[in-house]
Design brief:
By secondary structure, this protein is an alpha+beta fold. The protein contains five helices and eleven strands; from the N terminus they run ααββββαββααβββββ. It has a four-stranded mixed sheet, covered by helices on one side. A three-stranded antiparallel sheet has the order 1-4-11. The longest helix is centred in the first third of the chain and has 45 residues. 35% of the residues are buried. Bound molecules: calcium ion (2 copies).
Length: 405
């Protein structure tokens, strides 16, 4: 017989278990065990958190050390024999060429530097370059003056700008100008957060290689300083006159390393060996204050700091140096392994214009901002633009050596 559903009760209430017995209570022993287990779990979690807190930084350091070890394990590059093909042209040294590791390994980025400034250089790759002659120093004002005297050349910065190139500037306001660095009137708390145009570069009317800070400045006492306010096109004209050429980016870096293999700086792995400044860069918080511990605010006479292993001066700092390559952020991904000539065109993603490579950093490079005085670091500039911290030096092919002149 089918059971009848009791009135006033739901099916659900029927499904509940009957509380026939009182609930079980833990014994004192069980309570102790439960407490002990809880305490054990708590101590385990806390211990793990502490271990992560204590050991995580060293794990990161170990990772960096492991990366450095892997980098160090790469087979040693082979340098060519050091013998020059003839007598050195005046003011030049023979760079023998050979293999080298081009670029910056992440493990070599100096402590405290912003890795973002090296993003275009982080793909380390082995490259071979043929030997060549290179100027021992940046082209000086004295040398550039000889070129101008001989050719009557007028630099781009000294010419009336083309209104087509400056559509936002009223034509009547256009006048020859160049870019001059100045310490900002209001200190800048974080130069990486500056939006738009840099606040420390001024377009100064009348600034040119003859008037580095503007019309009221001149070259008095600066004969041996590197020429500045020369754009890429100006540098090419000088090279033609001097029977020389601009170095490729690979040639420039090979030379800057001075025969050292995979070192952070042109002279080794320490920025200030024996507390000595090895190049003209910027000390203090850029761009607000230059403590000039290296002895110079602005350009220094060429050769004021020790030469590198090939006898080249100022391959780090003083002024940026034009190279012949177009600039592309990702060129190292697919560049040829032998005598890379640079990409077929240039492009800078930030300003969305074509640029050429510059190398070596300048007196404006500081640890808190640019740090591009490393031999593997890359820079770039628009080919018709000049500035107070950009110059150049030349190279000459072995086939154009003095024996054949
Ligand atoms: Ca300096
Ligand atoms: Ca330089």
């Amino acid at each position: 017989m089918k059971r009848k559903h009791a009135p006033g009760k739901t099916l659900a209430s029927h499904s509940r278990p009957a509380l026939a017995r009182p609930p079980l209570r833990p014994t004192p022993r069980q309570r102790v065990l439960t407490l002990a287990m809880g305490l054990g779990v708590f101590l385990g979690v806390a211990g793990l958190a502490y271990a992560v807190y204590v050991f995580w930084p060293s794990a990161a350091t170990s990772k960096k050390l492991r990366a450095a070890e892997e980098y160090a394990k790469l087979p040693a590059p082979k340098l060519n024999a050091p013998d020059p093909p003839g007598a050195a042209p005046e003011g030049m040294v023979w760079i023998p060429g050979g293999e080298f590791y081009m670029g910056i390994d992440e493990s070599q980025v100096p402590e405290g530097s912003n890795i973002g400034v090296f993003m275009d250089a982080l793909k380390v790759h082995k490259v071979y370059v043929d030997g060549f002659w290179m100027d021992t120093h940046e082209v000086t004002n004295e040398e550039f003056a000889k070129f101008v005297d001989a050719t009557k050349y007028v630099t781009v910065a000294e010419k009336q700008p083309d209104p087509k190139d400056f559509p936002d500037v009223p034509a009547k306001e256009l006048a020859p100008f160049s870019i001059v660095f100045k310490i900002p009137e209001q200190p800048i708390p974080n130069p990486f957060k500056v939006q738009g145009e840099y606040l420390w570069f001024d377009p100064v009317k009348g600034a040119s290689w003859k008037h580095p800070e503007g019309p009221s400045s001149d070259l008095k006492g600066r004969a041996k300083h590197p020429v500045v306010h020369v754009c890429y096109l100006d540098a090419l004209e000088y090279c033609k006159w001097a029977n020389k050429r601009l170095p490729t980016e690979a040639e420039w870096e090979f030379a800057a390393r001075g025969g050292l293999d995979r070192k952070t700086y042109c002279w080794g792995d320490e920025l200030n060996p024996g507390k000595k400044w090895m190049c003209n860069n910027w000390q203090g918080y850029f761009p607000n204050a230059d403590d000039k511990e290296d002895g110079f605010h602005g350009t220094a006479p060429v050769g004021s700091f020790p030469a590198n292993g090939y006898g080249l001066y100022d391959m780090a700092g003083n002024v940026w140096e034009w190279c012949s390559d177009w600039y592309q952020l990702d060129y190292y991904e697919n560049s040829p392994a032998k005598n890379p000539p640079g990409p077929k065109s240039g492009f800078d993603f930030h300003e969305r214009i074509a640029k050429r490579v510059q190398r070596g950093g300048s007196f404006l490079c500081a640890e808190n901002f640019c740090t591009r005085y490393l031999p593997g670091a890359r820079g770039k500039g628009e080919p018709t633009s000049a500035a107070s911290h950009v110059g150049f030096r030349c190279v000459r092919d072995a086939s154009a050596s003095v024996n054949k002149e």
